[in-house]
Specification:
The chain is mostly helical and 358 residues long. The protein has 16 helices and no strands. The radius of gyration is 36 Å and the shape is rod-shaped.
């Protein structure tokens, strides 16, 4: 099996989702542009049409020559249109001055064909500008040596991060990213979302969807984990019966030891006929049993409630993944489910606002 890589995964995603083409182009990766430039140059080198035979009839000859001149100019119009269309594709922004020069050259050539009918213009400057544009090697183009490499690195590190997480969590032995429920992963995800928000040239609905889906998966995993953590749920109850586990939450068998000790003490008091001590202990144990049953029922009810919320979040996540829920509605629902900000980072809501009303 071929070695997996973030850049390779991005290229595979680009082949399936053309929304990534502008990002690769801004990083200087668009081989189709040079192919189009070669085709334009071939069109410019096509042989011009031959002039018509003159019959001596001035009217017919003038009409034939007019059609010839129109066809002569129209032959190169297709190449000019392709050149103008080439400039409409996303490309390195720093190459914009060369694009403007190509536009001016196209206008000059059109004007020359109009004023000098039947004469083939010199297309050498046009060809040079086209190749300077796609190869970014124009003498007047001042590009930093590491500009494109930095953009490709940023594209890999930021845009490819959700793909890296998906791949890492799909392999049991892959530790390239922290576990999904760890605090380290939460910090790492927040940092990458901040980097994405700080890089406007990377803004893309598809990448935003990747990050939102990853954040939803993370929040869903935490929600399920907390729903199944009875100790955490019990600690959130407002009124709890006094017990040793309240003061020693990290001691797993605190309540067992506590009540075994109280039961033994009550038995000793009964055997010693210390009724003044035995009666309160027996009553306390009886009340404790009822209180713990009540707490257990509340914990189970809350667990069912949290699991229900997790199921709703799972359905919302699936609907968002297939484009059945808008960003505005998703942001509203997430704020409603996570009022305290325990499961979703603030950057997620900033990210949801990027492509709203588009």
């Amino acid at each position: 099996m071929a070695e997996w890589g973030v850049w390779k995964a991005l290229e595979q995603a680009r082949q399936k989702k053309r929304e990534l083409d502008p990002l690769f182009a801004r990083a200087g990766v668009a081989p189709e542009l040079e192919t189009n430039a070669n085709r334009i140059c071939l069109d410019l080198k096509r042989s011009p049409p031959t002039p018509p035979l003159l019959t001596g009839d001035k009217t017919r000859d003038a009409e034939a020559m007019g059609m010839y001149y129109d066809g002569y100019a129209r032959q190169y119009e297709e190449a000019f249109y392709k050149a103008e269309n080439l400039l409409r594709f996303a490309w390195v922004p720093e190459a914009a001055p060369i694009g403007a020069a190509i536009t001016e050259e196209v206008a000059r050539l059109r004007n020359q064909l109009k004023n000098e009918q039947g004469k083939t213009p010199d297309f050498s400057m046009m060809e040079k500008l086209l190749f300077h544009y796609v190869r970014l090697d124009h003498p007047d183009l001042a590009l930093a040596p590491d500009l494109l490499s930095n953009r490709r690195r940023e594209l890999t590190d930021v845009a490819g991060y959700p793909l890296l997480v998906e791949h890492a969590h799909g392999e049991s032995q892959n530790d390239s990213v922290p576990p999904l429920l760890s605090e380290a992963f939460r910090v790492q995800l927040s940092e990458h979302m901040q980097r994405y928000l700080a890089s406007p040239w990377l803004y893309c609905p598809l990448i935003s969807q990747w990050y939102v889906t990853l954040a939803l998966d993370t929040g869903l995993a935490r929600k399920k984990h907390d729903a199944l953590d009875d100790q955490l749920t019990a600690s959130l109850l407002k009124r709890r019966w006094p017990s040793l586990s309240n003061w020693l939450p990290n001691f797993e068998f605190a309540d067992q030891c506590w009540y075994i000790g109280l039961a033994l003490l009550a038995l000793i008091c009964l055997f010693m006929e210390w009724w003044w001590a035995a009666a309160p202990l027996v009553i306390w144990l009886h009340l404790s049993r009822g209180a713990h049953q009540r707490e257990r029922k509340e914990v189970e009810d809350r667990r069912a409630f949290y699991l229900g919320q997790a199921q709703q979040l799972k359905r919302t996540r699936d609907r968002f993944a297939v484009g059945q829920i808008s960003l505005e509605k998703l942001a509203f629902q997430l704020r409603h489910w996570d009022e305290k900000g325990e499961y979703f980072e603030p950057e997620l809501f900033d990210l949801l606002a990027l492509h709203q009303h588009q």
